[in-house]
Target: tRNA-2-methylthio-N(6)-dimethylallyladenosine synthase
Amino acid sequence: MNKRAFIKSYGCQMNVYDATRMADQLRAEGYAVVDEADGADLVILNTCHIREKAAEKVYSELGRWKGARGASGAPTLVGVAGCVAQAEGEEIIRRQPRVDFVVGPQSYHRLPGLIREAEAGAKPVDTDFPAEDKFDHLARPTRRAITARGVTAFLTVQEGCDKFCAFCVVPYTRGAEVSRPVAQILDEAKALVDAGVREITLLGQNVNAYHGEDKGRAASLADLVDRLATIDGLARIRFTTSHPNDMGEDLIAAHRDQEKLMPYLHLPVQAGADRTLKAMNRKHTAAAYVELIERIRAARPDIALSGDFIVGFPGESADDFEATMEIVRTVGYASAYSFKYSPRPGTPAAERTDQVAEAEKSERLQRLQGLIAEQQRGFNRACVGRTLPVLLEKAGKREGQLVGRSPYLQPVHIPADAGVIGDIVTVAITAQEGNSLFGVRADAPETGAPPARSEAA
Ligand code: 5AD
Ligand code: SF4
Model:
């Protein structure tokens, strides 16, 4: 019987992508990759270091695996991957001796060798930024594995960050910006689409700074999107996450001209006061961000925006926080993530003596999240009565339903007999509940679904 491997991922979408690549590696080594932790012969925790809570999760989770054994009765092999692995290395094994190996995000192509060393009783730690490109060494996913993951896929095109925002660990855990070559990305995208993928989300810690090699020249993210758009069968392209200062004119124009690029943009500003932005080393003002949003909206009027915010950055006054509330009101987000500032070891902001009190952070977060939730509800409500193209992704939670996504990433539920997974169907939105939309097909349904409704209905 095959040995069983279980991978649990925390944090961002890039970790989700990395987990799929690790799973492909393990399958090539003869493992069955399973969704159930119990009885696993190998467990990999793919960790996140972005905030203290995320980083601490790994240690409480590791406690669970102390006495674990695989189906064969041998002790479960426990590995720590991801950004905590990169940031803490050896320290993880010192703190939790149950851990058998540690592997960073740039060296997981060496997983098979590390597993063999760990099985032999060594406790290898590999947090190198190797000279070789891990993507040249990773196992390719099988067609079956791709199909099993569904009709949407992530594809990492850029890693690392050179921006050094004062709060952020990413430049340390993921290293300097590196862009994958265009040909390598096109190859991977074609394999995904061949196996049934209809939507690809291009990932990078600073994805719009992408500058990959293309036949001896540097291609921008807009160039890459155009190249990907030529793949027949690929219907939708998204990218995340972006820095305002890398939002080039060609990328703004792509939102106007490139039909396959979805009108939804995650463009974090983090805070609304210029003095906070300066202290965060964001290298732009609030006004510059608002002006940029205006230009993007001029190019693509129906674009929906999403963002990230940090409250309680060191030195943030009550007035500074009000400026964050104000920029949220000015921009109007379809959705946004917001966090209390969490001091991270090794980052400049963690050294500051003017940290904001926890209670103050909590209060600010609550107010900000209230405002964001209100905007999100408003955005979702405004979709009722519209017709939207929906990519059907999977069976809904309730029987007789299929669920897909609108261009704005909202889950949309329709009667199951009204379409097939992988299709993009036109849906008249009839109702909204929380973040979900409900509707019926408005384009020639092949079934007995209710008649089409017009956009004006
Ligand atoms: N504390 C709180 N939030 C943070 N983020 C990044 N670093 C920190 C930190 N130290 C947030 C930012 C970023 C998102 C991924 O996480 O808003 O955009
Ligand atoms: Fe977490 Fe950042 Fe690492 Fe993603 S890149 S896992 S968000 S620390």
The pocket of 5'-deoxyadenosine (ligand 1) is lined by residues 50-51, 167-168, 268, 270, 308, 310, 339, 341-342, 344 (CB under 6 Å). Confidence is low (pLDDT under 50) at residues 448-457. The CA atoms of residues 427 and 440 lie 5 Å apart. Residues 384-441 form a domain with the OB fold (Dihydrolipoamide Acetyltransferase, E2P) fold (CATH 2.40.50.140).
